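Milestone M4 deliverable, item 7.
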Amino acid sequence: MKRTAVVSLWVAAVGLSAASCGNKKPAANKDAKQSDGGSGSSAPIDAPVVDGQTPVAACTAVHGTTISYRQIGQVTGSAVLATSPPNDGRLFVIEQAGRIRVLDANDNLLPTPFLDISANNNGPVVAGGEQGLLGLAFDPAYATNHTFYVDYTADNPVSGGDPYVDVVFQYKTSASDPNVADPTSAKQILSIADYATNHNAGMIEFGSDGDLYITTGDGGAAGDPRRNAQNPSALLGKMLRLDVDHPAAGSAYGIPADNPFAAGGGAPEVYMLGLRNPWRWSFDRGNGDMWIGDVGQDVTEELDYLPAGHQLGTNLGWSAYEANACCATQGGACDQTGSQQACDTTAKFFPQVVRSHAGDGWNAIIGGQVYRGPCYPDLTGIYFFTDNGHHGLSEATVGSDGGVTATDLPGTWPSSPASLHADARGELYLTTTTGAVYHLEAGP
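Output delivered:
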């Protein structure tokens, strides 16, 4: 059956258990690059198809708000994300082990991986638990420059230090086959030493400013033992923002001039701080608002909503706070050892939605996305999210006063989700730890 919606919502076995686990610059200064605030979503839907792209399938609008899932595909192992390039009808699925697979416009899984950097192919990816190939973002100008970016975990090539690295690499698509990447085009953009196997985050997205946004976990173990999240000079426990179009001399990227520490006082790459394990987050493609699902420690899960214009330099509080509770006064102290950080609310941003482990049965929130697709118009503007353990489906809306109202939807949903994400058109899909791919649909 031809896919009438070209977005993907994926789920994966990533071991997300909690305890183990833009401000916009004018696009005109980014050459001719366009973006609507999300990965693979920059070109107009009616833009011409060029350079081997697959046309986007049309859909007939269906009214109603009763949500259901329909399985459209199957991949191998854990599928951690699905997305697509701008104005492209294909669906690109990340397999955690280190492969990117392609579903064509008729939902056929192409036999040859788009990219294979798995250990089975002598690739660099270290996978298992929360490690692996974790993020994929297509350049907003992908139709002409054929460039995309991946985020994954690997062994640290430098001996004597931390055992792992969290890396971002740039690749290009093969000149002869648009369904296959060129493995020789790999170019390292960023490498961050990491000391534990968990809390790797790994979501990467382009903003409407044309910059690349990257989330990192606090480094792992439990309780942020190195206190990375509140350290502005550490790259772990952060959201980073890089200008990959205009690299500085001797670097693979440039620093946006308005990054909060661009002039000093912290790492210049840092855009936001105080994150624990922001496994999945997204921009609202309609207005640039940001939604972050930050996986909690032992007590709560948090959803952060940051309107456009209120993102730059925001401190989300970890590891002084877990959600809106101070660790120093919380039972178990968020599993922290040593001295506790003070309960200081100054310049902290607290979540609008909190779900508990004990009372709600949540244990690893999966940030989703606001629906902006053409197929189900009654869902427009609703944010959907879920949880890896609770595996329900929840929705959130923003009121006229800026407040967030969240509702847990009734029904039976696929278990162990890992991602809810949109492709170029704004349609949503879900995947499971067994690699099943579902399309989120609606009706009367």
